[in-house]
Specification:
about 210 residues; seven-stranded antiparallel sheet; 3 helices; four-stranded antiparallel sheet; disordered N terminus; about 25% helix
């Protein structure tokens, strides 16, 4: 009787072990099929070269680069954009490991754009965010055309601002274009679902 109990227990242990191994193998296979990044923040150069609380430099591919963060356990942040580009790249790195956490594109003036990717501390992709999704009926290309061809504005002018957001009350995605000419300030709001102007205001610069 005792012998049968011992044999039964041994059998159960073997089965449990096999199940555990299969689970581990499945996780390994799953991880191997997942997107993974090996990109890390260059902390050595950052702390050696930074002035005050940030480090700025010129990169031949990324353009002007600005890095900051890392103090008191905060994550590292990097913004990079070429002078002749309206869009740049934003990155966030984990403080402890220096591995890439978030990466995406941003419009230099006001908003995030395109696909943003999020990774865990081991470098595995855990999520993606389509920042353009709410505005697909009236995308950036139409806004750019409106600003350039109809409003006759220079997108690189520091008095021209473009922002977008989803209204908290109506849940409608909105494009907001604001520009200044002399002391006059003009603002247009566009419903990104319909492409129609829902608000147009003219004012003056506050003194």
């Amino acid at each position: 009787m005792v012998r049968q109990i011992i044999i039964s227990l041994a059998t159960l242990m073997i089965i449990s072990s096999c199940k555990a191994q299969n689970t581990d193998n499945n996780n390994i296979k799953k991880n191997k099929n997942m997107e993974r990044t090996t990109e890390r923040f260059d902390t050595s150069t950052y702390y050696m070269e930074r002035q005050g609380h940030e480090y700025q430099f010129e990169h031949y591919l990324r353009g002007k680069v600005r890095q900051f963060g890392g103090d008191n356990g905060s994550n590292y942040i990097e913004y990079a954009r070429k002078d002749n580009s309206l869009f740049g790249t934003c990155k966030e790195y984990y403080n402890k490991t220096g591995t890439l956490k978030l990466v995406g594109k941003y419009y230099y003036n006001r908003f995030n754009a395109g696909i943003w990717k999020e990774y865990d501390e081991n470098g595995y992709l855990i999520d993606e965010y389509d920042q353009d999704a709410p505005y697909k009926n009236y995308p950036w290309e139409k806004v750019e055309k409106l600003v350039k061809e109809e409003l006759k504005l220079d997108l690189f002018d520091n008095k021209v601002f473009i922002h977008r957001y989803v209204s908290k009350h109506s849940k409608i995605p909105i494009w907001r274009i604001r520009w200044q000419v002399g002391i006059k300030v003009y603002t247009i709001k566009i419903n990104a679902n319909t492409g129609k102007i829902i608000n147009q205001v003219e004012g003056e610069v506050e003194k």
